[in-house]
Request: fold
Amino acid sequence: MIPLTWYLALSAVLFTIGVVGVIVKRNAIQMFMCIELMLNAVNLTFVAFSSYFGDVTGQLFVFIVMTVAAAEAAVGLGIIIAIFRNRESLDVDDASVLRL
Amino acid sequence: MSDVLPSISQLLFVLFGAMALGCAVAVVAQRNPLYSAISLVGVFVSLACLYLTLQAPFIAAIQVIVYAGAIMVLVVFVIMLLNVEEEVRRPLRLRYLVPVGVLLAAVLVGEAAFMLQLGNYAAYTPTMPASSDVGLTASIGTGMFTKYLLPFEVTSVLILMAMVGAITLARQGRTPLLAAPGNVTEEPAALTAGGDVLLKPGDTAATGRAFAREQIRTGDAAAPSEVSREEGER
Reply:
């Protein structure tokens, strides 16, 4: 069978790619998608541990993480739309102050 | 049979893991946000396949429905709505950000490799049970509505808050928030002309202003001040 460490290593690499994306990208929507990527990497860890230990708690937590991700998507995209309406740009360098 | 099955599962892991990694790299490497979104759908689908190999069919289905279905449709809709063109390559304000990011990534990968490689896993290496009902919908539902009922309810409150917040943020007409006496920038042309007032149904702010203007014009002094004050407070 597949060792548990394979899943953990894959999850770590996926999370790292997400971190690099958030740091490097300047487009707000792409940064948002990289955050989703990080959430998914953590979900993979949860599901892997849950399956290998035979405990359902990890998968319940994944369910809640997905709910939070959906809420984050709604609010985050609303913020992105508001920023774009005010600045005509999605570049986060243009949104360097908090006031609209 | 028993020596064939592990190799098949390893093959599936390598296949979907490589697909997830490639799509994840594409998410970061693409400069067009739409291509990034499509690559991210690839990551989600391959992760759902990995969940299936982990005997978690419920989470795999939810992954496809919620992530690849709902969230990515929302993201693609916003990309289309805002008509985002390709990222223009312009000088970064923080020039050292890319090296810092790469360094941070190297540290993270090194840390993970250290923990996975040098950790004492010889003492306890769990093996996945051949068949279990952990990932089935029934066991997840049982756990969610008995032991973890409070987190579930809190999550529903969170969803409600997010709904209200998203509607507030993305609302087009922001007159109730920003309309102050000196802040009204656009007046309907029919009002400033002073002639017959053309009112659209549902245009409550314009109706109120037209009513106040009409009261002022006819000389009724008591009513217009009330109306205009109420409008000013809004």
About this structure: Chain B touches chain A through 83 residues (CB under 8 Å). Residues 27 and 36 of chain B are 4 Å apart (CA to CA). Chain B has ten helices and no strands.
